[in-house]
Amino acid sequence: MARNRQNLNIIYISDRMRETLRPIASCALTAVVAPMGYGKTTAVRWFLAEQAKAGAVVLQASIYSDNRSIFWKSVQKAFAAAGLTVLEGYDCPADASGAALLLEDLCAALGGKTPYYLFLDDFHLLGDERVAQFLCRLAYRLPENVHLIVASRNRFLPGEQVVRLGRRLHRIEADGLRLNREELLAYTHRCGVEITAAQAESLLRSCEGWFSAVYLNLHALAERGSLLQPGPDIYAMFTAAMLESLPEKTRGFLAVMGLADEFTVEMARAVTALPDAEEVLRALTQQNAFVTRLPDGVSFRFHHMMKECAERLFAQLPAARQTEVWQRYGRWYAQKAQYLHALQAFEHCGDRDAALAVIEADAGDLLASLSPAELLQRLDRCPVEALQRHPLAILVLMRRMFTWQQIPKMMELKALLEAAVAQHPEWPAAERGNLLGECDLIQSFLFYNDITQMSRLHRSASRQMSRPAVTLRNSGSWTFGSPSVLMMYYRAPGELGKELAEMYECMPHYYKITNGHGRGAELLMDAEAAYLQGAWEKAAVLLERARADAAGQENMTLCCDFLALRLALCGKEKEGYDFAAKRAALLQKHDGVQVHLLESIAAYFYALQGRPEQAPELFREHKLAEVSFFGPCRPMMSLIEQQVWLAQGEYVKVIAHSEGLLRRCEAMHYGLVGLQARIQLAAAQLRFGQRAEARATLAAALLDAVQDDFWVLFVEQYPALAPLLEGEDWAACEPRLGPFVARILPAGRAFAARLGLPAPAPELPLTDRDRELARLVAGRCTNKEIAAALYLSEGTVKQYINQLYAKLDMGGDPRTRRARLAEWYQKNAPRN
User: Fold this and answer.
1) What are the Cα distances from residue 257, in Å, to 238, 249, 277?
2) Which residue of 235, 383, 534, 610 has the fewest CB atoms within a 10 Å radius of its CB?
3) Is the dihedral of CA 775, 781, 782, 788 positive or negative?
């Protein structure tokens, strides 16, 4: 018989369980893996409560679905509840590089003496291997005072990570959570329930130490005086023990609130329409261990077992009642700006108009977390008439379709919008203009870097719109992460004047309808062109005007910094730029795009100076594949990576990768990037001994550059190209090239001298035999060993080696020439 029914909700942690939990305090990562109902969450929360009493900071986040955006918001909420601002403004990392930036910030923010515990519950619901990998990386890096705990029904750690983590990992599995005979008896005694020896044996046999099954049986015993009969599944047991005897109102409350991941009293009152919802919830919490108050003190959640049973109850409600409940959920979530939850609720009840209103309110921000397939399916289910009642939602969806490159669907939506406006002449003229104008703005993205077409559409949008665009945020990166405006919009040789005029014409219209997004771009593009033409004073003035216009826009300011650093290398701007301080400031803003932009600037700057070892790791170690760069800036990143390869002496890499880069530049009409890539290719070919190929490549680049007088491009590459620039009669190739190269040479010499770079070695017209000979000498082979390897006489080997010394201009002491040849080979050998 039961002595005290209320004691059923006690927390029981056995001595053995306490010992099992103890290592959490000394391990970076604890993985708690067991099936549902084994008390994972209860045990961990008890441990965390004990740590909090001792002064530890506890952060807890529950996972309810596989939506990474919702998961990330719950983690941010947990940090904010603990007074930690480190995740404010951070987007969920989308790539390895973004994860690395987050790791860096987290370790800096949490390091110290105060113990921190971060608990992620129900990790199995997320189902994202990338997050599991990130948690492992986090565990390697965490300071000793920070501990990560992850509870899951399924094993989530890859085997190799378990080995690698070693003693930093603590694992708790089902056997560690299961009640043994002594613990079961102690638990029932603590609950105030007397059981017979036969009942104890029955519990052990039927429940096998499964905590939830034991609890349900004790609840039934306390309620009815008998243990549960074995059922088809745990849910049947739960329903029999916990739900069947509840009053109808309470069962209705459970059926409705079981749909929520978490809820407050206020939300329960709004969704159930029960004035006494708080009293119902209080009674449930007191009588039922499967209803939990969360650490924030105001939110509640149902255990997954109860949630599943509640959802089954909800499914039995009349269809009209279900629709009413989902609409209340949708309205609640929409009012709280929880737009993804609101969309899901309105999708359940088929309220397309309400869903489209949510899309309008969200303006597309959270739509990005849905998969393209899912959103397209929802669109297909949405009647045309409903879409046409929400033209602003059509614009938001058009913008999202463009981002996902679903262009046919985007154009279908465009036609739908134009038809809706045509069918409603009664709409205010201003609103009609705003809709059609923003449609033109979105359509202009299809013509990226075709300034003629973009200008036409921007002017049309500006003429029609009386408000800023709704679907475009002016806080985003205007250059998509590129360090140069000119690299983006210079399409073809000889077109510079036309392109600059069109930029000056269209950008004021664009600024008007986007709240000044990218302001200063036309001035910066003009300044970059002046720099490449050697009009450095003009460039400096335009640069300062661009800086003034770009004030407050980090993206444009960084692009200004890029040009200023290039001018400084030519002696036309003040030197000194604190990359470390700038990077630290950008990290505080949690903007990975701008951090990578700064890294690309630093990489180019140091590579031009012949100091690739100072380039950021992303470029120095060639880890660009780890970053999800925006498509429009990827060719620029590849170009900068090639500049680092050149500085590292990786000439084969540049030659091998140039073909793909040039192909992409041609497809994207990136005339300037392609021109610079050909100059890099010529330098690599020259240094690798392919003089004829280098001359042809350089000649083609010179003929393109001369059309817009871009001679400074060759000044930046002079240290590598000097033998070819200085040693050829370029006027014989094309008369215009004579005076063009004549300007390059003195400026190039001054550039190299200013940077303290050594005088360029002669080009290397080496044969394959020469390179093989150099490799064997570098390998400390004797002449006899070389002769055997190459099937030559020793005399011939000696003759070939002397010819090689002459080609490389290695005169001087014969006793040191062999060592100098080996040193040269180590620096210039092809690297795989």
Assistant:
1) 17, 12, 11
2) 383
3) negative
pTM beyond 0.90: the answer is no
- Dist CA 606 CA 50 (whole Å): 52
For residue 63, the one-letter residue type is I
Query: How far apart, in whole angstroms, are the C-alpha atoms of residue 105 and residue 587?
Result: 7
CA angle 695, 698, 703 (to 5 degrees): 120
Q: Please report where in the chains the tokens 């397209």 appear, as a residue.
A: 376
Task: Determine the angle formed by the axes of helices 96-110 and 129-141, rounding to 10 degrees.
Answer: 40
Coil, helix or strand at residue 30: strand
Residue 431 backbone phi and psi in degrees, to 5? -70, -40
Q: CA-CA distance, 660 to 113, in Å (whole number)?
A: 51
The structure tokens listed for 364 are 């597309």
Question: How many Å from the N-terminal Cα to the C-terminal Cα in the chain?
Answer: 78
Q: Which two tokens stand for residue 733?
A: 């190739």
Written as one letter, the residue type at 590 is H
Both tokens of residue 567?
A: 């001018």
State the residue for tokens 């993985």.
31
Q: What is the pLDDT of residues 106-139, one digit of tens each?
A: 888 898 999 999 999 999 998 788 888 888 888 9
Tokens of 726: 């200085």
Closest C-alpha among 153, 146, 70, 53 to residue 105 = 146
Do residues 56 and 114 lie in contact, with contact meaning Cβ atoms separated by under 8 Å? yes
What's the mean pLDDT in 13-37? 92
Geometric angle at alpha carbon 149, from 144 and 151, rounded to 5°: 165
Query: Cα(811)–Cα(815) distance, rounded to whole angstroms?
Result: 11
Q: Contact at 8 Å (CB) between 354 and 330?
A: yes
The amino acid at residue 461 is A
533-554 tens-digit pLDDT: 999 999 999 999 999 999 889 9
Mean pLDDT of 757-776: 70
What's the whole-number mean pLDDT along residues 421-440?
A: 95
Give the chain's largest Cα–Cα span: 109
DSSP per-residue codes, 381-427? HS-HHHHHT-HHHHHHHHHHHHHTT-HHHHHHHHHHHHHHHHH-TTS
